[in-house]
Write a structure and sequence with these properties.
mainly beta, eight-stranded mixed sheet, four-stranded mixed sheet, 3 helices, 12 strands, globular
């Protein structure tokens, strides 16, 4: 089975407006309004990272009904400034990918936002393994957001993942993704992305 491909980066924020302002100031380009995720009680805004990848700012939607389960990406417990918290892989066969992934990736849910529908593995407590450093796994049903976003000339050049158990994390990810832009290092749990923009190379963390 083919390995997964990096689908999107996730920037969590206390409010959508705060996250959008953070990214637009850092990268120097405007974001595109996304939409609502009814099942999770969240909403987002998007930015193209090329024809097959994008950056997502996500936040709890104050106008949405509270979900009956924990929100994805541990958003129920998010505090502090907007920052890069997660990433997601696009896979052809989500069931197969789940067999290859470590325990704790969650259950496969069918989700939708506007014209988009996808299946995604979401942990029961909303927290992905390895302190959120493991990627979320998803499979798009038909249309994908990335090709429909305006190309602002922004590209991901590197994604650095750090974790105290770097070797174990590398082993866990090996059956799922092989990407020359991806590296894993020992350190405190976290993500750091290097992004090429019209104004030069920028570090998002």
């Amino acid at each position: 089975m083919a390995l997964g491909e990096l689908d999107h980066l996730v920037v969590s924020s206390a409010t959508l407006a705060e996250g959008v302002a953070f990214i637009e100031k850092l990268l120097g380009v405007p974001m595109t309004r996304g939409g609502d995720h009814p099942l999770m009680g969240t909403h987002n805004a998007l930015l193209s990272l090329g024809p097959l990848a994008y950056l997502e700012v996500i936040a709890i939607n104050p106008d949405a009904a509270a979900p009956t389960r924990p929100r994805w990406f541990d958003l129920d417990y998010f505090t502090g400034p907007a920052r890069l918290t997660n990433w997601a892989l696009r896979v052809q066969d989500l069931v197969d990918a789940m067999h290859r992934a470590p325990e704790g990736m969650g259950d496969i849910l069918t989700l939708e936002r506007g014209i988009y529908q996808w299946d995604m593995a979401v942990p029961d407590d909303g927290r992905l393994p390895f302190s959120g450093c493991m990627p979320g796994l998803l499979h798009w049903r038909g249309a994908q957001p990335a090709p429909n976003l305006p190309d602002q000339g922004v590209r991901l050049t590197a994604l650095e993942v750090s974790h105290p158990e770097a070797e174990a994390l590398s082993v866990a990810m090996a059956p799922l993704v092989s990407d020359s832009r991806l590296s894993v290092h020992a350190g405190d749990p976290g993500l750091s992305a290097w992004i090429d923009t019209p104004n030069g190379l920028v570090n998002l963390r």
